[in-house]
Specification:
The protein is of the alpha/beta class. It is built from seven helices and five strands; from the N terminus they run βαβαβαβααβαα. α1 packs across α6. It starts with 8 loop residues before the first strand and ends in a 9-residue tail after the last helix.
Length: about 230
């Protein structure tokens, strides 16, 4: 890149959790001017949105935008429907914490904002190794969405190429934590728990809490999570 040129812009999806904080740090480390995007989608708690704001500020996002959605209007997930309990023991198959079409919706809105910003790079912290079995975290989904982005946008039709970056997709949770630690990520700012309280205190029992705790243990790094 020409030293005199402006850095490339990227839209980075920031949920407030461990993975998205690491992804934002990686995007910044790669020289992108980062625009952080979060969603108030009807999830169980808003502690993760407060965390997303702090993470975006701490890691130099040019702007942090929160878009309000109503995925709770369709329900179908323990994260958006109070009548469905967050499981506290491992399950088989796709778990009830899967939110129907969530990453498709999120990436579509990120794509729209990216086109407005003339940013042709989008970062998302999906993971296909230590994850809960969500179909919209797989490489096949990301590749299909990237193809669609070129077909569905004015910029794509006019010859611009959108790249969906998934720097964590083949990393274990321990490897993600080690990479983020090397970049100075303060994981004490993050909230990963599906059932956190209003202050971001974690339950310690849901899938996300278990994966997070196991990742810190495997990485040999002290877990800064606040448990209830």
């Amino acid at each position: 890149m020409n030293p005199a040129a402006s850095p490339p812009k990227a839209v980075v999806l920031v949920s407030g959790g461990l993975d998205s904080a690491t992804t934002l740090a990686i995007a910044r480390d790669q020289g992108f001017e980062c625009y952080a995007l979060s969603f108030d989608y009807g999830q169980r708690h808003h502690a993760e949105l407060a965390a997303a704001h702090e993470i975006s500020r701490a890691y130099g996002a040019e702007l942090h935008k929160v878009i309000k959605l109503g995925l709770d209007e369709i329900g179908g997930s323990a994260l958006t429907d109070a009548a469905i309990a967050v499981p506290t023991s491992p399950s088989t198959g796709i778990p009830v914490t899967y939110v129907p079409a969530r990453n498709t919706v999120f990436l579509s809105l990120a794509l729209g904002w990216a086109e407005v910003l003339q940013a042709y790079d989008i970062f998302i912290g999906v993971n296909a190794v230590d994850y809960s079995g969500y179909p919209d975290c797989r490489p096949e989904f990301i590749a299909a969405f990237e193809t669609m982005a070129g077909l569905a946008t004015k910029a794509g039709v006019e010859g611009c190429t959108f790249t969906i970056h998934t720097p964590l997709i083949q990393m274990s949770k321990a490897e993600i934590i080690q990479a983020g630690t090397a970049l100075g990520v303060d994981y004490g700012l993050t909230v990963s728990c599906y059932a956190a309280d209003a202050d971001g205190c974690a339950c310690g029992e849901c899938d996300s809490c278990r994966l997070r705790a196991a990742g810190f243990a495997a990485a040999g790094i002290k877990d800064p999570t606040r448990y209830c």
